[in-house]
What does this fold into?
Amino acid sequence: MDGRMLLFTGKGKLRRIALNAAASQTLSDNIPYFSSAIPFGPDRLLVSNHQNPGVIPWSGGTPHPIDRLYSWAQMLPGGRDFLYTIDDPQLGSQRARIATTDGNDLGVEVVQADSRVQYTASLRSEGGYLVYLRAGALLAQPFDLAGRRVTAEPKAITRRVPSFGSTGAADFSVSRRGVLAYQSYINRSQFIWVDRTGKRLSTASPAGISATYVRISPDGRWLAAAPFDIERGVPEIWLYDAVSGAGRKVVFGPHLTGPAVWSPDSRRLVYTAGRIWPRLSLISFDGTPDKEPLPDTGFMLPTDWSPDGRFILYHSSGLPSLTQGFSSDVFAIDMARNRRVIPLLNTPFQEYNAVFSPDGKWLAFLSTESGQDEVYMQALDRGNDSLRVTGERFLISRQGAQCLRWRKNGKELFYLGSDGQVMPCHSLLVPVECAPVSRSRFSPLMPKPPPPFTRLYPLTYPLMAAAS
It folds into this structure.
């Protein structure tokens, strides 16, 4: 690589573009994401990610799978050796190795870290450095490239630089000639109670907890959030007292953890945990794990639990609007029928963040059916042995949406617009602004609304207040 070509992915395809070119070229039709790409022998390109590495011709084509993981591969000076980092589940950290492009072995281990490892040349000597993270500290360790060994203890450059668990990802980068870029992590989140005008009433958590997602327990007594631990590089699930704001940790460990959803009796939580792909797990209020595992269907993010406790909703892709190479569908787990998985929304569009109405008769969700992320709603048909959506699909939002919540009494559906404002759809106003949409195409505005929702108007308070 001579630094004059940029590789990137878009809509599930690997593309390249010269720095001064006006258009890009497709190299491969089935590489939705990658962590690194380096020359790998004559006229070949090693394209790495965390699960499916492959080699493609430099001219493009279908990747040829290889049986070794070479995550975060970096070509070293000389063009023969490369540095890569792999996750070691037993060690609980990353192992950095140096191998040759014309070989097929694991190479020589050079260092262990909490993140990917990069090599850079020294500006003051003929040696170089390995740069990586440990416990949130960005370190530079002197390294003898010819001897493939470290020559001194690492030195801290700065602290509070985030890494991201077993993925190896981290917020730093170094050039070949020793220029370093990094981003420090700042704890600046706090949950607060406000009224409908946005007036602050009281705090709901300590300050500086580094969390942006929260769910209120159905009994209104607790908040479940997943603040980020900068030293360990993973989110952890905490519960905060809704009155005092005092918190306690209920889920922690080496794995990435994700959003938690309450059971309707406020006694259990379903959440995600996994080294690479999130899977669903259950715990009780005191943090005791559930003895019976939930089904494993791949990437799983929980979004809601039905009011009667029978169904858990989840979707199958993270950030569906960004990961366009992956489908995002909505599923339900039937807790009363041996935890059977039921497909609910499975279309060519990205569908996610589904939530039950408080009476369990409607499903609200986000979809890209109109060409952008919007809120939709569809009726639910509940038989003795299954669950399915039925009837017309109705468009609720019109200028983009990010997430949604129902009011506890079912009279309002709140969503966060793309402009950051909270919007409710109210049941007591004139029925003029909800638009039914077919499953196959975006429909124009129609006068018939899905009961009980009718009209939209802006508010300025956060979504956590919507559940009260």
